[in-house]
Specification:
alpha+beta, Rossmann fold, 3 domains, five-stranded antiparallel sheet, 39% helix, 22% strand
Length: 471
């Protein structure tokens, strides 16, 4: 048995990453790390007693090269007899100015992988992060002023995400691929040192490793010891201060009045809670901003807000509290539902949405059909781009907005205006293209008029008219 195979088995078992019967969605690019993970997991699926699927996000950033990556993976999936579930997201047209490309790509990739896992009932999502990836992450965090929590590096697992290659170096991965005659595709963008991670990988780390050959192992040891120290500190705090955290379906409430006389203790507890329950990276600038606002005289205040997380201070019976909520999370996972739909211009397809109690037909029409049925509440008409390949039908999420003629409006406000109860709100289907809401299908479930985004309204020049009709 190859040394890498032994390492992976020992790591998976030692970290309890998988259980017998798990359905594992492999999040793959066409690169070397992903090809190693795919080959290893395909060979170990019987030993580990797991089922596999492959998820791939085509970023559409590199023209034909991006499409070749997708085709390459599709061929590999066929060879290994593993279901292949690709997604596409046009980052050139849907860039979010609030994030770097790397940050947005990571966010979208994880979100779409999670949606795919939920849709097809996978219990774990595996990524191909290696020991080198962990070293890059650690170094970038150190240089940005991380605390002890950031020194833990990339976690072996978090929620559904597992990382079975985390103890394997890139050099060992390449050697394994070459010894097994396995091919992969290189992404030219990995040579662009304008990206922070590429600069760390291609410029900084090679210089350090030339002088300190054991650097990767040293970082790994530091990361492990940081984790041990955090777990020890958390246990001692719990023993001395009791329960500080209460969690519900929509977020976390932290009893900060018990610890706010000690800034070091405050920062440690807040960092632990944010990382454990909300996920985003915590740095000193973020903690400084929260501490400063927390200690103002105002009893109610937003302490920190990004596209990922919101924190606010408010008074409790015994003292000050902090409420932490993920942006976009207002329903429990059992209440959220989503259906991905691949666009097919050649025919009509039917989709059942049991959560909304409806069934719909999806097809394309001409302008005359639109004119005849445009006022029917059982029809939705939207114009789409020739580049659109997939859309989603889902229910509401916190922070949802639609672009109407009068400006951008919160979906929450639309529902309040109609005086819908929570059950009715959760049943209204929303039509999603990329990160944008194209339509609110209130007519399908409540009898109120449907709302169409001004970006997707039909006009005389509309070439592609997508129809969703309630049956």
């Amino acid at each position: 048995m190859h040394d890498i195979i032994k390492k992976v088995i020992n790591f998976v078992e030692g970290e309890h990453l998988l259980a017998s019967g798990d359905r594992v969605l492999l999040s793959c690019s066409a690169g070397k790390d992903s090809m190693a993970m795919l080959h290893l997991m395909a060979g170990l699926r019987d030993i580990l007693d797991v089922e596999l699927g492959i998820f791939h996000l085509n970023h559409l950033m590199r023209g034909e090269a991006s499409d070749f990556d997708e085709k390459f993976l599709e061929e590999r999936a066929r060879f290994y007899k593993i279901p292949f579930m690709p997604e596409r997201f046009d980052f050139k047209k849907r860039r979010d100015p609030g994030y770097s490309f790397e940050e947005q790509a990571r966010k979208i990739r994880y979100a779409l992988a999670q949606q795919t896992a939920d849709r097809y009932h996978y219990t774990k999502i595996a990524t191909a992060h290696s020991k080198n990836d962990n070293a890059e992450t650690l170094m970038m965090r150190i240089l940005s002023g991380t605390g002890i929590h950031g020194l833990q590096g990339i976690h072996a697992s978090r929620d559904m995400i597992i990382r079975p290659l985390l103890t394997i170096s890139s050099e060992d991965i390449v050697r394994y691929l070459e010894e097994n005659g396995l091919s992969w595709r290189d992404d030219d963008s990995n040579a662009d040192n304008g990206y922070l991670r590429n600069h760390m990988r291609n410029v900084i780390l090679p210089v350090i490793r030339e002088r300190y050959p054991a650097f990767l192992d040293s970082l790994h040891t530091m990361s492990r010891q940081a984790g041990e120290q955090i777990r020890l500190t958390d246990r001692l705090i719990a023993e001395n201060y009791g329960q500080l955290v209460e969690q519900d379906n929509e977020g976390i409430t932290l009893s900060t009045y018990k610890i706010d006389d000690d800034r070091v203790l405050f920062n440690h507890v807040l960092s632990s809670v944010i990382r454990r329950h909300a996920g985003p990276y915590v740095n000193s600038g973020m903690l400084n901003e929260i501490w400063k606002k927390y200690n103002t005289g105002k009893s109610h205040m937003i302490l920190y807000k990004t596209g990922d997380i919101r924190m606010r201070k408010f008074p409790g019976e015994a003292g000050k509290l902090i409420r932490i909520e993920k942006a976009g999370q207002s329903l429990s996972s059992s209440q959220q539902w989503i259906y991905p739909v691949e666009i097919d211009e050649t025919g009509c397809r039917t989709l059942g949405i049991p959560e909304a109690g409806i069934e719909v037909e999806i097809f394309f029409s001409d302008f005359d059909y639109f004119e005849e049925n445009r006022l029917d509440k059982n029809h939705i008409f939207v114009t789409i781009s020739s580049d659109d390949t997939t859309f989603y039908i889902r229910n509401r999420r916190k922070g949802d907005r639609i672009h109407l003629g009068s400006g951008t409006k919160k979906i929450k406000e639309l529902f309040i205006e109609k005086k819908l109860d929570n059950e009715s709100k959760n049943c209204v289907p929303l039509l999603i293209f990329g990160a944008h809401i194209a339509a609110v299908m209130t007519g399908f479930t409540t009898g109120f008029q449907n709302r169409i985004s001004i970006d997707h309204m039909i006009n005389d020049g509309s070439n592609k008219i997508l129809v969703i009709r309630k049956m």
